[in-house]
Amino acid sequence: MGKYSLTDMVVQHGAPRQNVDAVLRQDRPMSYRRRWGFALIGSVLSLLVLLVMQTLAAPPAPASPPATTAAVAVRKAYVGLFKDQAIAVLDTATNRVLHTITVPPGPHGLVMTPDGRKVYVSSDGASTVSVIDTASDRVVGSIEVGPTPHGLAISPDGRQVLVAGFGSNQAVLIDTTSDRVVGQIPVAQPHNSVISPDGHTAYVGSQQQGATAIIMLDLVHKTQSGQVPLEKTPRALALSPDGARLYVTVAGADSVQVLDPASARVVSQIPVGASPHHPLLTPDGHVGLVVSQGPGVLAILDPTRNTVSDTVTVGKAPHWIATSADGRTAYVTNEGSNDVSVVDLAHHTVTATVPVGNAPRKIVVQPGPSSTAAVSPAGPTGATVGVQSAGQAVPPGTAPAADHGTQDVRGKAAVHLEADDYYFEPTFLRGQPGQTVKLAIENESGTLHNLSLPAQGLDKDLPPNGTVEVEVTFPPSGELRFFCKFHSPLGMHGALLTGDTVPAPVSQGTTK
Asked: Do 314 and 291 touch, CB atoms closer than 8 A?
């Protein structure tokens, strides 16, 4: 042991000398090995005590700052698959579908909280809004909102979700903290909506036939505060980031309507391709976007000049747009080709096409930067844009009819016609010259459809899951086209055929 005795070693580690001496005197018969064992145990215990005391005395580690966005390893996009009754979850880094989440029939509206932690989904085949936790990608709640809920909007601060209760004729407000309904405001057949940057005002597209309008809601007092009457049925809406301009698409017009919310009037129109649907501005407001369902393009808009800068060909029947938080990438759902186009907004090119499932409609993307280059507000100019000619029975850019058969109705006074997404069945009716037939048209979908026959003054909306009766008269010869004014570019049209007439091909030049 050198200079140190066993007593000295144990005392050095904190034991009183007199106690150690006493123990050693009592244990003198002990073997040398056992004495070393006791000494070693004492040393280890003393060291453990020292370590615990040092840990307790150390200053606490600094607290992590509160997260402002979801801390996720994978940045995801959520896509509503209307015909699959599901939400597809897309990895935006690899552009692959990770999995799907089952929801009630007809996922229609889709919004995400600004922190990316929750997604809300309305189902127009049910009466609920589903709540998805994006950390687990599971449905964690279901909120009863009334029959046939359509589009959703979320306030910029993420505190409220507005549900367009198409079947209940009201706008329903959900508090996102409690996930409970906290208010209802009467609105006739609301379809889509958008909320102002300060969260105080909502603009709701009312599709009530004969009274189509943008309804303004005071969300503080939960009342209607004004309206902008429209000649045509509103489809989708978007606000500029500063709230100074409201962009609206309407059925039967191949242009985006630009409204001034302050004066409550239309101040401009931007001609785009046939059947424009969802307009959107990038987060900085420098670039406008809108999908045109007829030609299948994403139009790039210059909001300062209200013009089209360029167009990008995407998939069939594009429906909705979402952008990355930095505005560099656009994600476009293509309902007709069952995929999502990923668009580089700097170079105006499609960088990926991702199959996602049947009938993708709405889409939202978790916040965070994309990997593409910075967006140039102005792209190539001089793009050619088709403008609908007046007086056409079937709008230009219309796809061939989605053919679901021909029925011979000669000698009949009444016929049942089915409307669905996106076709009439039967598509062609064969009758006698001058024959009048009563059509009972049943809309078997959760989507608002329409039957228009301009030559006979017919323009009748077909409410979701409803039946409408109209009378039509066969022409003296040839054919007479009827169509859905909302979805004719998707092939939703048909014809009254007199005698043995064969349906004529439909193209952009159709002027019957």
From this structure: yes
